[in-house]
Amino acid sequence: MKGVNNVHFLSPAYLWLAFYLLPTIIFLYLMKRTYQDMTISSTWLWKQTLREMEARKPWQKFRYHLLLMLQLLAALFFIVGLSQPAFPIQGLTAKHSILVIDISGSMWTQEEGKTRMEMAKEKVLEWIDHKSEQQMVTLITMGKVPKIVASKSKDRTGLKRTIKQLQAGMSAADFRTTMSLANAISVNDPSSEVIVISDGAVQTATSTHLPHRFVQVGKTSENVAIGAVSSEQEGHQQRLFVRVDNWGKKKNQITVSVRNKENRLLQTQSMHIASGKSEVIHFESLPPSDYYHIQLRSDRDALLLDNQQYYFSNQKNAVTMQWMGDRNLFLQKALALHPHFTWEQSQQSSQKLSPFTIVNNHPQPLPQTGPLFVIRPHQAQKLVTVTGTTSVSGTVQIDQHHPIVHRLPLKELAISEVVQVKVPTWAEPVLKINETPILLAGEYQGRKVVIFLFDLQHSDLVLQPSFPILVAQTINWLYPVLGMKESQATVGDPIDFNLSPHIQKVVIVNKDQQWIQSVQKGMFRWQVPEQIGLYRIVDAQTQEDIGYLSVPFPREESDVTPQAMATSAQKPPTATFSSQQEWWWWFALCTGLIISLEWVVVTRGD
Amino acid sequence: MSTLFDPQFLAKLDNIHLISRERVRGMQAGDRRSRQSGSSKDFVDYRTYFPGDDLRLIDWHAYARLGKWFLKTYLDEQKTDFYVYLDGSQSMDHSHLSKRATAIRLAAALGYIALVRGERVNLYTFRKQIDQTLFSLQGRKNISRLFQFLEEIDFSGEGDLNQAFTDPKAIPQRGGICCVITDAFFPSGMDQGLSYLQGASRQVILFHVTAKMERDPSYQGDLRLIDCESQETKEISMTNTLRREYRNTVQQFMRNVEENCFRRGLIYVSIPVEEPFEQILFVRLRRSGIIR
Question: Which range of residues forms the domain containing residue A148?
Answer without folding.
Answer: 96-219+562-578
